[in-house]
Amino acid sequence: MELSPRDPDWETRVRSSFAAQKFMDFLGAEMTHLSPGGVDLELRLRDELTQQHGFFHAGATSSIADSAAGYAALTLFAAGFGVLTSEYKINLLNPARQKTLLARGRVVKSGRTLTISKADVYGLDDGDQVHVATGLFTLVSVAGMKD
Amino acid sequence: MELSPRDPDWETRVRSSFAAQKFMDFLGAEMTHLSPGGVDLELRLRDELTQQHGFFHAGATSSIADSAAGYAALTLFAAGFGVLTSEYKINLLNPARQKTLLARGRVVKSGRTLTISKADVYGLDDGDQVHVATGLFTLVSVAGMKD
Amino acid sequence: MELSPRDPDWETRVRSSFAAQKFMDFLGAEMTHLSPGGVDLELRLRDELTQQHGFFHAGATSSIADSAAGYAALTLFAAGFGVLTSEYKINLLNPARQKTLLARGRVVKSGRTLTISKADVYGLDDGDQVHVATGLFTLVSVAGMKD
Amino acid sequence: MELSPRDPDWETRVRSSFAAQKFMDFLGAEMTHLSPGGVDLELRLRDELTQQHGFFHAGATSSIADSAAGYAALTLFAAGFGVLTSEYKINLLNPARQKTLLARGRVVKSGRTLTISKADVYGLDDGDQVHVATGLFTLVSVAGMKD
Questions:
Q1: What is the pTM of this model?
Q2: A134 touches B: beta carbon within 8 Å
Q3: Do A25 and B32 meet the contact criterion of CB atoms below 8 Å apart?
Q4: D89 in contact with B at a CB cutoff of 8 Å?
Q5: Domain limits at B104?
Q6: Stretch (H or E) spanning B102
Q7: What are the pLDDT digits (tens) for A73-116?
Q8: Whether the predicted interface score ipTM is above 0.85
């Protein structure tokens, strides 16, 4: 697995692209880790993010998993290539009823066109950690798309 | 495939559970179709729902697909059983840059414990319709969980 | 969705590539339908294809689903491009204990690099038809790979 | 995660169920590791297992991944419960053109009804190891089904 960034400006680029994702700001997600091939995002529980039983909605859980997986991929893209999610699959392992969700996106295979990332989401609660979800993501690098 | 609701109050139950999903209200999703085994949701584009290129974020697209698929399953559940998403997979087919997203959730197989639904998401724009995403969802019926 | 073959020799190419899949011959799969964007494969039950309960092994079911989905994609590829499966997901809906499996692969979205196909597998038994599996597949077109 | 077998006879049960999978014998798969929550299977390349380019067919790769993931789950089932695959997703990371495939199935979450396993498949060739595939599997425990 190639974990050397091809773009010397990868860090600035990933941070500014994440800052431009209005949906992440709307949810309240924050980037808490950034390294070549790895991005962590955190999201605090608020009423607006819940489903009918008061847990994080699977859509909220998946949204930060998708962004973490996608930006982990982008850390390794050459300059001038943008990132789009082609597909993903996620298993929801336990109810997400903790105070904070932590999504860990990590690159599994970095290719020229396709990158495969995984994301694991943990619920954090006063020192406890519950494995809430695990997923696999295919990201496409698109030439000429600004990111 | 069994498409006869087991709960005579299925319609009221699905509508009130959907109304209790604060995340759907936060996104702005509306239920525009409800039948045994089928739920449609619509979502209008707003800045808050976009990713870095101005398209609907994959997380927003997936969120309404998940709720449409899950509530399609719930229409067929017996009274006293709640619905949780166990897993799903989604392929993002085309950029979601239309004014409105329409997610069509339909039951593929209704079982006692597990229900499989599919969801197709279309982008609607002045009469045009683009197939934006397609997914498969496994829903679990949980005894004693209010829904 | 573009369903016009780009290669005038698509039919010969798909049939000869399928004939070159020794694994399909080993399982005993036969191509029973071929059209632009669509391939059907059939597989008759034999002891060698079963799991521990005497049903078709999920691996056998998935194998013909994968080949049906992949060759459906190949029908639309330009000459000189080969097909590889990038990823797939499959839901096993009912036990596959019928005499024959029929896998229907159909293109959902045909792109230059990525094609998304779906496959549905049915168990056939003296006129009965059971929906055994449904899946979504991402196929990659690879320049310079013979197919 | 609960990794204590509930059935004192788990080892005998898993080995004899695997021996009863005629499809695994047909492919030539062997169990090379067995522990609570973990099963490894190996498969040597033969012409009968290849696709049109001479690589292991994605169906062969997936078949051993599925059996490894499923038997990893079965190691933790109570006596009297059988295992069925409900669904899975697999990403094919690199061409599988090595001499031997090694599939590592590991339990991610062990539940009463649903178990989530992952499987990673490696291609082994004279000391080299290539990550060929990674997947996520949902297994169902079925009361009264012999395994």
A1: 0.97
A2: no
A3: no
A4: yes
A5: 10-143
A6: strand B100-110
A7: 999 999 999 999 999 999 999 999 999 999 999 999 999 999 99
A8: yes
